[in-house]
Amino acid sequence: MLRLAVDSLPGSMRRVAGYHLGWFDAAGEPADADAGTADPRSSALRPAQAAGKAIRPALVLLASAAVGGIADSAMPAAAAVELVHNFSLLHDDVMDGDETRRHRPTAWTVFGRDAAILAGDALLSLAMDVLATGTRGWSASGPSAVGILSAAVQKLLDGQSADLEFELRADVGPGECRRMAEAKTAALLACACELGARSGRGAEFRVAHLRDFGAALGVAFQVVDDLLGIWGDPAVTGKPAHSDLRSHKKSFPVTVALAADSPSSLELRERYRRVEPCGERDLQRVADLIEATGARTWCQHTADAVLAEALDHLVAAGAPGRVEADLRTLAAFVTRRDR
Amino acid sequence: MLRLAVDSLPGSMRRVAGYHLGWFDAAGEPADADAGTADPRSSALRPAQAAGKAIRPALVLLASAAVGGIADSAMPAAAAVELVHNFSLLHDDVMDGDETRRHRPTAWTVFGRDAAILAGDALLSLAMDVLATGTRGWSASGPSAVGILSAAVQKLLDGQSADLEFELRADVGPGECRRMAEAKTAALLACACELGARSGRGAEFRVAHLRDFGAALGVAFQVVDDLLGIWGDPAVTGKPAHSDLRSHKKSFPVTVALAADSPSSLELRERYRRVEPCGERDLQRVADLIEATGARTWCQHTADAVLAEALDHLVAAGAPGRVEADLRTLAAFVTRRDR
């Protein structure tokens, strides 16, 4: 369905979007099959090297199954959230100046900044189209699917805006960082679960628990992703070593370390006040300082606690045993608890 | 309704969008009332200096009235097309590097490129939300309103993509230029008329004639706008003199002049092969060469012919006399035939 939708785009948009999604190479030729099939059911649960791949469509389909829905009615929402996710990646890569994603050059480095902005716009509009067309049978008394997705998009944009602003500020606290993650990351995961549950015509209390499961899972995912942004293996993450430190990103471990009361934190604050550290040795020193404040351990505990909160909501949603097990597997995969 | 919708955005997006729309100044304070009220009924038909202002919502409301619809049911579509128009302006200004719009610094020059991209994204998503929520009573058998708007957005993006590509090419013909204008400009005007007519539950043949009226009007508008991009008075257009020549934009007069068979055209082609003309005197010479090929007159005739085509569709749509008169006035305003 995702493929069909993207194939409907004008050629100029399809080429850039298809490259970004891993379907084509830069010349528009089909890429290696391994590089990026996007059928959510086949790829979401395999130990993909591309973190986050098709997580959102899988959440939609499983949340639908959790309330007894059928996959067919959840497919438009599954495609729509994946399109929104990729819209945001295309634009974020332009704003953040990131040159690598999923082990390949980012779209803007290949096609130019303007083409990446336009392709992102095309995916956002397409997401709304697919969702509006696919949910016309929804009851007119409840919230509209496009309204739910649009609210998540607005949060996501607000979160990206905060993320960019944080890079210029030295005094970002862990609380602000969490609110940013709730907006930038968790809102779309919550939306995926809510749309899935609503497409399966779930009772309101189940919709709410599944949405809250998605929201907590999103925060846990972001904490883990932030840990990997400093201590992750480039061969696994597909990003350069210490990438989040290079950009002065105010990720969870950084904000926790900066707020700590210790000699390491003091040296860290000094370093963050100065010009950016450039060399690999400087970055390693910053990473070690953050670890010395205890921020790494704190984040690991936080990820565990928020994941546990997510799983409480999952249990309360009362999904059939097999679906609950699949959602637990997915949650473990997202938070790297599966290895 | 537009104001209410934009007020619902997160603060970070509202600030930039409200500045762009002329409601706030750069500090977020209310701007002069004169600078940009956006109620379509009050401002569309006044001789605003800001060309194109609220044209699209006025088309929605008048197309609805043309088939006997009531304004209330057309309001969501009116707000949605204006939001999409402003989304595209925010992003186009970033891509084109334009520093002035509506006699004010463009949003990206005030808030930065990233903030303008995010605010554009927010308006696009909001447009779909407003339209989806406001058209839930539409029959499920016809096309969905969001689907119609999204198709127009895809054309608009494809047109902007072609426009950017044309700046790098010397061999753009008038035919390509027209197809680009049909995509970049006419698609949204056609969409405005179609959504208005459908919100008024017009018969299919009326919907089609009103849509084709909007499409032809869009092409006529673009031809006139291209003439103003070379020969317009900066005090009236709000853009620098010869602005389209500075950027090597392949507008209607330029493509017609480049394709002509005359000494002026030959000198023009020579100049376009060289590096950009920089000085005001060079730009004046290029403008004079274009005029000497007859391209200016050709474009004026084309604008008249396409406008006449639009008015034929308007007559065929069989609107009540008063509404047809209003649409004629709007068409004259859009194509500068009212002064």
UniProtKB/TrEMBL annotation, chains A, B:
Transmembrane segments: none
Swiss-Prot/TrEMBL GO biological process terms: isoprenoid biosynthetic process
UniProt xrefs under InterPro entries: Isoprenoid_synthase_dom_sf, Polyprenyl_synt, Polyprenyl_synt_CS
GO molecular function: metal ion binding; prenyltransferase activity
Annotated Gene3D superfamilies: Farnesyl Diphosphate Synthase
UniProt keyword list: Magnesium, Metal-binding, Transferase
Any Pfam family: polyprenyl_synt
Signal sequence interval, chain numbering: none
Protein family (similarity comment): Belongs to the FPP/GGPP synthase family.
Stored PANTHER family: GERANYLGERANYL DIPHOSPHATE SYNTHASE, GERANYLGERANYL PYROPHOSPHATE SYNTHASE
Protein name: Dimethylallyltransferase
Species of provenance: Virgisporangium aurantiacum
